[in-house]
Amino acid sequence: MGEKNKSVKTGRPVKQEGDISTEEKIFIAATDLFAEKGYAETSMREIASRSGITEGAIYRHYKNKDAILCSIFDYLEKQIYHPLVQINENSHSIFRKLLEMLPDYLYENPRIIKISRILIHEMHKNPKVSNYFQDMYGTKADIYTETVFREQIKDGKLKSIDVHTLAIFFNTFRFGWFYRNFILRNNEPVDTEKMKDDMNAVILLFEQVFENTGT
User: Fold this and answer.
1) What pTM was estimated for this model as a whole?
2) C-alpha span between 103 and 118 (Å, rounded)
3) What is the pLDDT along the chain (215 residues), one digit of tens a residue?
4) CA-CA distance, 77 to 129, in Å (whole number)?
5) 211 forms bridges with which residues in the sheet?
6) 76: alpha, beta or left, given left = phi > 0 and alpha = psi -120 to 50?
């Protein structure tokens, strides 16, 4: 009887810790579907069904499917360039700073791998994906790396060499390493310790060949 007059609150439920936003639910559902079916073959209705919301709710967050694809581009760019912000620390060589963290970082961020697989699969069918891929993994990566290496040469840490050629060489290795370990070996178990050992050997080679030892 004491519960009879108890007031009942209505309205939006309190968001629990660990809940994700509607926009993030859409993003996750879309990337999963793009990876499973392909971008062109995935409909907004399917994205709505997978994310557990109405199709109309999607359009309150994303204008169209192309807007979701652009948000994937933005997400990937932030995730790829974010771990490189500490490159000005002096405790390790530039090659160690740029390469050593990759095995753990990528293993701990499987959505980066999934999105990269989507881009590689779609780049031959979708001009927007192709242009983004070339810019992200080609032009922008080379410009960024050239800038970093140029500063290292200026500080006397690297030998005085053609930074453009070094950047292309370095980025070709980095992309090839990523492709071999996370794209080609799609269904194989990931051995991060072996990856780290292999990466360390490459880092040592880069250091031996390109670091300025003063001799």
Assistant:
1) 0.77
2) 20
3) 444 444 434 444 444 445 789 999 999 999 999 999 999 999 999 999 999 999 999 999 999 999 999 999 889 888 876 555 455 556 689 999 999 999 998 888 889 888 988 998 899 999 999 998 888 888 888 998 999 999 999 999 999 999 999 999 999 999 999 999 888 877 777 788 999 999 999 999 999 999 998 75
4) 13
5) 158
6) alpha
Contact 176, 202 (CB under 8 A): no
Residue 29, class by beta-carbon neighbours within 10 Å (0-12 exposed, 13-18 middle, 19+ buried)? buried
Strand partners, 158: 211
Which two structure tokens, joined as six digits, stand for 186?
């799609």
- Two structure tokens written together for 160: 């005085």
Domains with residue ranges and CATH for the chain: 19-62 (1.10.10.60), 70-210 (1.10.357.10)
Between CA 113 and CA 103 the distance in angstroms is 12
Tokens of 188: 């194989």
What tokens were used for 116?
């990269």
